[in-house]
Amino acid sequence: MDSIDSAVANGKLLQSSAENIHRLLESSQDPIDRAAVDELVAGEQWEELNDRFFKTLAFGTGGLRSRTVGRVVTRAEQGEAPEGSRPQFPCVGTNGMNYYNVSRATQGLVAYVKQWAAAHEPDGRPSIAISHDTRHFSREFAEFCAKVCTELGVDAYLVESCRATPQVSFAVRHHGCTAGVMLTASHNPAHDNGYKVYFNDGAQIVEPHASGIVAEVNALTTATYEALPKEEQGKVTLLGKDLDAIYMDRLETLMLQPALLDKAKALKVVFTNLHGTGGIIVTQMLERLGFTFLTVPEQDVQDGDFPTVKSPNPENPPALAMAIDLAMREGADIVIGTDPDCDRMGVAVKDQRGEMVLLTGNQIGSLLAYYRISTMMDLGMLEGSTKANGTLVKTFVTTNLQTQIAKHYGVGCVNTLTGFKYIGQKLTKYERAVPLPEGTCYGDLSEDESRALRLQHSKFFIFGGEESYGYLGGDFIRDKDGNAAVVMFCELAAYAVSRGLTLPELMDEVYQKFGYYLENLKSIVMEGAEGAGKIQKLATSYTQQPPTEVDGSAVTAVRNFAEDDFIDEEGDPIPKEKMIIVDLADGRSFAVRPSGTEPKIKYYLFSQNPAPAGEPFTPEQVEQLKQDAAQQLDSLWAYLEKDIDVRLSA
């Protein structure tokens, strides 16, 4: 303690870090905590201690996410695990993803769930569905979470082994659970893990539940708790292949034209789960639907180190490199990759020259939106006076090409803040507006029955997505679903084959019809306590000193979502969020948003050239627009990079 106080006095350790170290060691009964801190202090690892203790990991509206393996791994944490392998214990620290914070989160969630159930479901015991991916400590955290739940009087539905994130949403709805928990950090680096919370609609928590749970977690002054007597405790039910089968039956209903599967026999698919959970369901679905496919053997292994990739993120081209190499050797047409918790999907497709081309998240989403809307129109699923109640839901930072497609077909398009929880919130709103026949539950309706009721009385969800490779095609799930995305994309590919087109050719056809839209995402990573301060400074600078001219173009509007009031296309208020969108006179725009799950600030760049009404672009015009838009966004980013340096140095 003297060394810690001296480090604070000498400016090597933050005062908040020292206070959190004291607080943890005073309340913790785990000898690993003290041993790890002693070792870091003895080694004068002040930067590491600041990163681990500068704050208490906040339980936010998305739950928890942080490092579970420190940059510096102490001998105490490594324990009996072989050197170079995953440590035996998660990293110690109030800002780490460890048992201390999982305990706090679960206790707070249980307290809120029990209060809510007492008011809304007094006749039954509340329950929580719990799932996890292949990340380090995910299984241990999931079992620990189930233990806390049951010892505090709540039933737990725990997966028998790792499963995709969307399956916990499905489990919540199927079993009528009060809430759900997913242990995952999605596509973050291997050293991270997280705790994602759902409520009884199967969607991630939004208000008022979010603030209620946060308040319960923040009220806790210790991670320890006293278990209830045995007779008052909950029970654990394991979830496995039986629920998988029900889920896969629902996935199959996403197929709009099953007859196209005959065309699919001409396709060859390479799939990789990037060491994650995607191989559990995706391969079964591809086999069930009759697709010819291969997997990448080295990446089939479930491994939280993600040893074959620098980042297990299908948004990043290097993550699909091994799959693309295999596809080229085997003459495959499509490469599909899902992230570790299988809620995101990235693809590469063969073009007319026989080369593999990566599609962006905006392109994938636009192709799926176009195919699903146009096909539903052709099949008579959307027609007449109720057609306008068909709705596409996307985020503000997702391409407006999808807005243009929806407008062309006369269906709705609603923009939400970033995060699938807001799309899930819309689906819950639409569900609650449906008048159900007496004695019928919403989940009991067939797809045809549900669609008819929604088109008549509410909104029918056609498709939803976000630019960060997340897609959803049915409301039986309330989160983005990589398993569902694979099913929908493979049907889309079969459709292109049926017309004698490659998918890049189909994309160009969409551009000619609706206009050329180009987007780019740039992220600046700033880790640790110092990085968090820089991100805050940079984000705040745009609200305190908004730009008036950018890259030679006048600013026509600055939309400040943190301070200004907005409503969406349906008249619902937009919650406050740290994001600004800047529109320029020349048609370009950009958005700035601190990430809610990673130590980075994101810049979304947009160029849009809608096709004149009734006058499609020619192929030659599209090619010229591609070149012009790329140059425009390169110039915009070059300007913003210099401006970022100025803002940080101010």
Describe this structure in words.
The protein has 650 residues and is an alpha/beta fold. The protein is globular, with a radius of gyration of 25 Å. The relative contact order is 0.09. The strands form 4 sheets. The chain has a 6-stranded mixed beta sheet, sandwiched between helices. Strands 16-21-20-19-18-17 form a 6-stranded antiparallel beta sheet. Helix 2 crosses helix 4, helix 12 packs parallel to helix 19 and helix 15 runs parallel beside helix 16.
- Rg calculated over all Cα atoms: 25 Å
- Second CATH tier, the architecture of the largest domain: 3-Layer(aba) Sandwich
Number of strands: 21
Identify the CATH homologous superfamily of the largest domain: Alpha-D-Glucose-1,6-Bisphosphate, subunit A, domain 3
Kindly name the structural category: alpha/beta
Query: Quick one: biggest sheet?
Result: 6 strands, mixed
CATH top level assignment of the largest domain:
Alpha Beta
Strand order of the largest sheet: 1-5-4-2-3-6
The average pLDDT score comes to: 94
Shape: globular
Q: Total number of helical segments?
A: 22
Distance between the ends: 37 Å
Low-confidence parts lasting 5 or more residues at pLDDT below 50? Answer: none
CATH topology title of the largest domain:
Alpha-D-Glucose-1,6-Bisphosphate, Chain A, domain 3
Report helical residue fraction: 40-55%
Strand percentage: 15-25%
